[in-house]
Amino acid sequence: MKILILSDSHSHFENIYSIYNKENPDKVIFAGDYAKDGKELSFAVDREEDFYIVKGNCDFFDFHTKEIIEIELLNKKFLITHGHLFAVKKNYDIIQKESENKGYDIVIFGHTHRAYYEKLKDIHYFNPGAAINGEYGILLLEDEKIEFIHKKL
């Protein structure tokens, strides 16, 4: 399964549309800041059921999108959040503690506009960087194989 991971598009829809068409993913995770862009992309490609979207700190008037969602794909438990609720610009202590306590396998977040990947205590932490800058991520997920890739348009 190929999962496209996006965050922080900040109304640069053309970037995420180009990225989507370049990668042709099975699923899409949008980790906030202009969740509207993620929703518009899901409508444009007519695959709303394959999108997982959370809102971020810049989604002021979005009263319908959640700030945190949990999903399970191929027996892996995901936390998807923008990251602002976990103070990820300061450090990763809060999000790591929450992830360990809740038993997540994969944590997806944005907010910092910096690409990041680390595996700690069997938990994968991934920030794709900012789509406003053409940055994004790919997660290749198959049975026990988990591979994260940072990319740029």
In percent, how helical is the residue content?
A: 10-25%
Radius of gyration: 14 Å
C-alpha end-to-end distance: 21 Å
- Which whole number gives the mean pLDDT? 97
Shape: globular
Largest sheet: 5 strands, mixed
CATH superfamily: Metallo-dependent phosphatases
- At the fold tier of CATH, the topology name is Purple Acid Phosphatase, chain A, domain 2
Structural class: alpha/beta
* Succession of helices and strands: EHEHEEEHEEEEE
Order of strands across the widest beta sheet? 3-2-1-9-10
CATH uppermost class: Alpha Beta
> What proportion strand?
35-45%
The CATH architecture name reads 4-Layer Sandwich
Number of domains: 1
Protein name: Phosphoesterase
EC number: 3.1.4.-
Keywords: Metal-binding
Organism: Hypnocyclicus thermotrophus
Keywords:
153 residues; alpha/beta; Purple Acid Phosphatase, chain A, domain 2; 3 helices; 10 strands; 36% strand
Explain how this protein is built.
This protein is of the alpha/beta class and 153 residues long. The chain is built from 3 helices and 10 strands. The strands form 2 sheets. Strands 3-2-1-9-10 form a 5-stranded mixed β-sheet, with helices on one face. The two termini are 21 Å apart. Its EC number is 3.1.4.-. One of its GO terms (molecular function) is hydrolase activity. Its cofactor is a divalent metal cation.
What are the SSEs and their pairings?
Elements: E1 2-6, H1 13-23, E2 27-31, H2 35-44, E3 51-54, E4 68-73, E5 76-81, H3 93-102, E6 106-108, E7 116-120, E8 123-127, E9 135-142, E10 145-152
Parallel strand pairs: 1-2, 2-3, 5-6, 6-8
Antiparallel strand pairs: 1-9, 4-5, 7-8, 9-10
Protein name: Phosphoesterase
GO molecular function, one term: hydrolase activity
Organism: Hypnocyclicus thermotrophus
